Amino acid sequence: MGGPQRFIRANRDSKPTVIAADLRLDTPLLATVFETVPDVVVAVDRMYATDDESVLLHCRVTADAFGPFERALAEADDVSAFAALTTDSDSRRYRISLVPAAVHTSTYRGWVDCDGMLLEARRSDEEWTVRLALPSREALCSFRDYCAEHDLRMDLRGLSSYDAMNQENRFGLTEPQRDILLQAIKLGYFDIPRSASLAELGESLGITGQAASERLRRALKSLLETSLDEDGSVDSTAATVEG
């Protein structure tokens, strides 16, 4: 952990600021799944508790074939249930329920107790790479201590200002709003005629059709407000995006 960790200690008394921490986590979460299908790539979109003991993962999975992956999930000791939410040819979206014993090995409780927020999590090349938003360097140190207490290796790869990261989002969208817009395009919600309903859009994201409708309206409102000038013309700066 070397240099980055010394940097944290040297700045513990500095003014608190929301930070984004890029981490490598060595945890046994879904370890047997990755042993069975080592080439699969899992990108976690959302992770949240449904009660005091249960945690759900929403993730995008890329694999050559999904049969072996789903069989491995069915046999995994840390998975209580799973469902495929989309069935694209080369990638699929899954909802995975963890057993209570796996909550700590997922590190979920650790960063939640530190008032952290998961920004990204990805498992490939035999490691989990994670980006967390944390309220302070002290919170990051607390999360490090949590990992040590549970025999989970945490390597700090880098720190950045989360506020600075948010300024890069010129469209004012939250991550869930961006996700629902991208998913709506992907499923054909905006096509004529529509290829997916609000209920189907919500199901693909693990939310109700009503929640999908409200989130989509908020996302479109934010997008329009930040993309259009007061006279109704398109903001040329905001309209320039890659991809």
UniProtKB/TrEMBL annotation:
Transmembrane segments: none annotated. This is Predicted DNA binding protein, contains HTH domain. The keyword Transcription regulation applies. The keyword 4Fe-4S does not apply. Residues 34-164 form the Bacterioopsin transcriptional activator GAF and HTH associated domain. It comes from the Archaea. Residues 173-224 form the HTH bat-type domain. Keywords: Transcription, Transcription regulation. It comes from Halogranum amylolyticum.
